[in-house]
Batch of 2 targets.
Target 1
Amino acid sequence: MSRWAPNAHERLQAAAWELFAENGYEATTVAQIAERAGLNRATFFRHFADKREILFGGEDALSTAFVEAIRAAPVGTAVSECLEAALTAAGELMTSEQHRRAGQRRRAAEASVEVQERGLAKNARIAAAAAAALRDRGAGESTAQLGAATLMLAFAAALREWLDDDDPEPFAPYATRAFVALRASALELAAPSRSSMGPRQTSNAPRAPTAT
Amino acid sequence: MSRWAPNAHERLQAAAWELFAENGYEATTVAQIAERAGLNRATFFRHFADKREILFGGEDALSTAFVEAIRAAPVGTAVSECLEAALTAAGELMTSEQHRRAGQRRRAAEASVEVQERGLAKNARIAAAAAAALRDRGAGESTAQLGAATLMLAFAAALREWLDDDDPEPFAPYATRAFVALRASALELAAPSRSSMGPRQTSNAPRAPTAT
């Protein structure tokens, strides 16, 4: 086993995801991952802080997709259009391989508070990056924060539904549905008057969608 | 040191906050907290899982304040009014003692990833409780989620500004300012058309954004 391992990072990731699929995340050890990759534990720890890091390896890709899409939108693009562009860009990452991995990650999170906490920390970093990208375009502080929160909620809702479907369809329609619902909710939240809580009213402001 | 310790929970909390103020969170040990309270380590661990639990001891109170205020709002109350009521109720918890404690918590979080992660987990639980309370009133799923997220953002923004002021004013005006800004942001996000990103427009429609 040489210290110089070409593509060690990718080999360790591939080995880990194979083992997670075979035996589950909890039952897989770092030693097993290293062995499957033909490497040793020391090499593993040169590439990853711990096993959870592999589970959340897609964080950078998602964050980059969001940030680049927000940055790339033409000057004058509405916040909601920036967020839609970010979701579209994220959708391109959501391959059938990602469907398997995200399902694995969800099962691991259901079984472990530590995994949940790592996921929350990951989401907080992605949201902060998206908020910074919106701020850089001139969005006010609360719009940047709420925009990033809406983006994360749309992505999470779309991901849940996408994962609930065993046969992974393209991600985009899930993301669109989630975002349209959230935009309607934003309008409802913005309304200072009585709206769709409790007994339904028969009329709404002209552009307000009906709550579902 | 008797095993039966009246008010052990409160005595441990008070001792811990005294020591955090004197020596900082990081430098304070569980042994010191127990000693200051006239108790032993075993008693500490019967009451708290770890030192971080003391730092986040207010979680239940905040969550309860949010949930009860949302539940208590009359039938037909708009979501935004439920959220305002929740912030008002939370404001009543924000005493000058809380100002000191929240400042301590912020410094501890700045110095420790573990404290940050516990804080994120706490916020996720409070948001989930608030979303459930909105759902129970008949709010749709995305409105419950976005409403809870908006509530958490408003509380966090108000808390930041409140803590930045050394002399703690009542919390309510901070919460109101933060919420008004977020409600305007919600309207901006709901707008499908070009809005305030990039060149500013001079007028906004009072109830509904202009369509393109």
Target 2
Amino acid sequence: MIVTVTKKALAGAISLAERIIPSRSAAPGLTLVRLDVRGDRLTLSGASHDADVETTVTGVEGGGEGSFAMPAHVFAQVVRAAPAQSVELRFGKQLTVHSGSFKTNIQLVDPSQMPQIEFPEEYSTRVDAAAFARAISSVRYAAAMAEFQAIFRGLALEQRNGKARLVATDGFRLAYTDLEADLGLEKPVVVMAKIADELTRFLGGGEVEIAFPQQRRLSVRGESFRMNLSLMEGNFPDYERVIPAQFPLQVKVRAKEFVAAVNRVSLMAEKTANNRVDMLVKGGQVTLTAEGSMGRSQEILDVEQSGPESEMLLAFNARFLTEALGPLEEAEVKFSGSANPAVFTPVGGGDYLAMVVPLRTQ
Amino acid sequence: MIVTVTKKALAGAISLAERIIPSRSAAPGLTLVRLDVRGDRLTLSGASHDADVETTVTGVEGGGEGSFAMPAHVFAQVVRAAPAQSVELRFGKQLTVHSGSFKTNIQLVDPSQMPQIEFPEEYSTRVDAAAFARAISSVRYAAAMAEFQAIFRGLALEQRNGKARLVATDGFRLAYTDLEADLGLEKPVVVMAKIADELTRFLGGGEVEIAFPQQRRLSVRGESFRMNLSLMEGNFPDYERVIPAQFPLQVKVRAKEFVAAVNRVSLMAEKTANNRVDMLVKGGQVTLTAEGSMGRSQEILDVEQSGPESEMLLAFNARFLTEALGPLEEAEVKFSGSANPAVFTPVGGGDYLAMVVPLRTQ
């Protein structure tokens, strides 16, 4: 069977799939990509331990019907190297990829060596793809990185006040954002934040459909892709309990300027001492200071300050500050005390909230 | 003493110096940069085990006279972070760097803790800076990387046939290029290729002056910099002896197209087997083939072939081929036999020659 497809479409589809499919694995079947030809559609699919993925290329010429498998990263490299605008795939005992004067034979593998991948037929809800991607990107920084941090590495999805909420927390800080969608969830589900990062690459324009089959996966379907994300086991922490409600001191800041100043000042902060930046709020000014073995940096910013308290000295991990402010433009920073979490929201309210626990000032 | 300087000039000067000065060293004095203020000139200097460097900023306002030292990488980071167009340097017990609303104190160190740096007053010759940089860049790839490879990590400079010649070889390949200059050298000198790389960053427009003080260093002086490169000890190999003179088969190729084809085909080559690509020259065509555990790639290129022999089968490390052809446009590839070195030169002659020893074909 011979099919012809544009290089651009095929390279785009395999490059997305390749991000999920591991290049090495103790289970060799996991490194494979499956190609299914059905008329003018070519479907690429594969899996990792935490996700399944399928991307589809349409407008395939030649056609026929067949299923094949091969190492995903080999196929991806060959397709990306193709020198001509179109790529011919000739399936026999081997796959011969032909483009311009370049010809490559790739060993085929029996597709039965791959894990069985199933995508749901029915989806329960729809959501704007770009808004979903933005929501994931705006909170995922607050998730933990290290393996031992278990559920803290997750991104929780829950239905709250009629909206879909995405929440991440590593125990020292938290971020959530709300999205116009009815997930139909009775209790929160949690996906791994790093797999959610991959999902955002698939989320282009238009809408995607969402389902939670057997409450074991998050399944997302777009025009040219389907993806299953495994749900994490364990209970996501009861985060609302720790968000303060009383703020005796508040400031309004332009987030970009504030972040730039924190970055400059934190040059002198000691990475080994939590990258600490001191923050004195007083008289309509925020004074940022960092001190380490190399010297001391300081920057003073004018802010719009409101009471009832007139001053407060706090200390923060500089990175936690800049990440909390990252998704914001005009930001309201609300202090509940020197030793209590600070809260970051858009001025005038909005669908984003970040919280950062300060460092001890003594 | 207070001086003011534009951020752009200061950041440029410290960034160049910083590339030479190590960020960590068993000799802490080596991590320092020295600042000398003399009227409207600010000079930054520092050293590594293999090189000394000095960069100069002119148009400094304020002025005065003094010498100071501090960790180079700290100073560089602070200068780059400066938010305003100008930077004020206030020298006291500490250095206070002030730019816009940002202020940093950096601990100063006694400049006597730094190694003594001396640059020659007299230079023996002049060379076009851009041509010198191009010459270094076009041959340095052929130098060896690993520490144990001793003199093979070097770039040799010698005077030959009235020109300055730069040569690099790792024993498996070789490259040289000739430059219009009289180095006044009686025998070759060798500098470390990776330090020569750094020198190229200083080589902008105009001319630079060159000296070999006491045959112990290569010293280069430009309008706003001076640099000493230590000479390596040991004898550079007698490379001319191994360059073949008889070529029973030759082809002319467009280097860029040929390199692109080698890159595509070598996808299937085994990195652990010298990244081997087979090359069959026959009937006005070069057939490139690579085979590995994943499959087999092939590409056929039309070339201009000349005899007396009508065909030859060779094998090469793909990277050695692409690097040898890198500096060329229209290239002449001359074969002296399946087991003998191939030679790469510009069509119609020129100041560049590369040689690559083929892999065994059986």
